[in-house]
Amino acid sequence: MEKIIGIIANELNIRESQVEKTVKLIDEGNTIPFIARYRKEVTGNLSDEILRDLNERLIYLRNLEKRKEEITKSIEEQGKMTEEIQKSIEKAITLAEVEDIYRPYKQKKKTRATIAKAKGLEPLSIIIYLQNEKENIYEIAMQYINSEKEVNTKEEAIQGALDIIAENISDEPRYRKQIKKLYFREGFIETKAVNEEEETNYEMYKEYKEKLNQIPSHRILAINRGEKEEALKVKINKPEEKIIESIEKDVIKGKTQFEQMLKDTILDSFKRLIEPSVDREIRNDLTEKAEEQAIKVFGKNAKQLLLGAPIKGKTVMGFDPAYRTGCKIAIIDETGKVLDIETVYPTAPQNDVEGAKQKLLKLIKKNKVDMIAIGNGTASRESEMFVADMIKEADREVNYAIVSEAGASVYSASKLAGEEYPDINVSIRGAISIARRLQDPLAELVKIDPKAIGVGQYQHDVNQKNLNESLTGVVEDAVNKVGVDVNIATPSLLSYVSGINSGIAKNIVKFRDENGKFKNRKELLKVPKLRKVSF
Fold first, then answer.
1. With helix as H, strand as E and coil as C, how does 2-68 read?
2. pLDDT (tens digit, 9 = 90+) per residue, 26-38?
3. Rounded to two decimals, what is the model's pTM?
């Protein structure tokens, strides 16, 4: 554990004592927002961002240590552990490195090499690999002919031995490490259109090439999507000659009867075993890093949106623009309660501008509307022009704002929206959501699946588990930074408070509905299932 603490402290440029104390808090079951907000004196004022990075690295490094233990045990049980292997395992700093070390000792499925070993050809492979034998290798191979084991000719015996050598070369961790370095240093990712005549969303990548160590995250994700949609063919162009030469230099010991045989085997090992496997690993590495970056950007943008300043004490008209089906209207008071709903048709094809104007002016007067929140989707520009013109005729001062409606339709059809507004049509619920977003962005946006908020690229392409974990963390941080009013907060909002799960959140709201507002904090202890630890 000391080693892990040292690594994290060094990476994050903080003191080891800070890491040690934070790890203790995490291991005791405290959440990151709770530690960030209520344990500053213990962590030495670490921010929620640093605490999340610390937690991520802690999980990764603990998994790394666990995997090292498993691999060490497995190699020891096989009786193949050496001091050199032990040192390599200890020095490895990534899971990929550890897996490369373990590769030769893994239980393999049926391969050409395992079949050759079962035929008793391993001793012959050692003779060829050592390259010391002066006697003609084909004469030696005669001794390995065995019809029972299906080795019928000396050529078959040699081929089997070479298959074993090819797999050994492929499994050698030193070669794989060197090969990956060459890939990243000199390799390119290349893309071509599957159908050059057809126009797609991937015109830029019709014939495209970029260095592996320079390609930005968003392009990796775009290429992945193009490949998934079968619009692009993707390949990695690597310094093949250099790779093969570096292996030959290590394996071949001068001009012997084995030279050409081993050259052919090295080429076979690279083409058949190493290249497909390393190509896959490199693509996975690039994708993982790109997804990590995309999730970070997404989280940052989501946080800014969630922490948008609320507009308190105003009655708001939510205006969800549309064409044929009409613009949906919902008016909510300062507590978010729905006062009125309506559908008007000021846009094409009806173009009932006058009728819509009269209806809305009446609603503004009746409900004393202060603000209009216009969704930024389809027909937003036309709706904005209509609203700007209409409010000139209102009998009170009314302002308007354009509001992001990303995720409003997802929320409208959700189970939660059905519970909140069981008697209101799905299409009108979007207008309520738009109005409430202007009034209190945080309270409203926590109801929406974070990836539907629409503040990042490729959110549907990245690892969904990692995205959800990251965005749940972002929402928790935002909620715990601002705090919530326990007397008006919805269960959705309360469930993001440290120590409160969705069940307790519902119990708080139920208790509040039955007993009225909470007069002091201690009254929370009367809420079913809210025990002292949560309190």
1. HHHHHHHHHHHCCCHHHHHHHHHHHHCCCCHHHHHHHCHHHHCCCCHHHHHHHHHHHHHHHHHHHHH
2. 998 888 878 887 8
3. 0.76
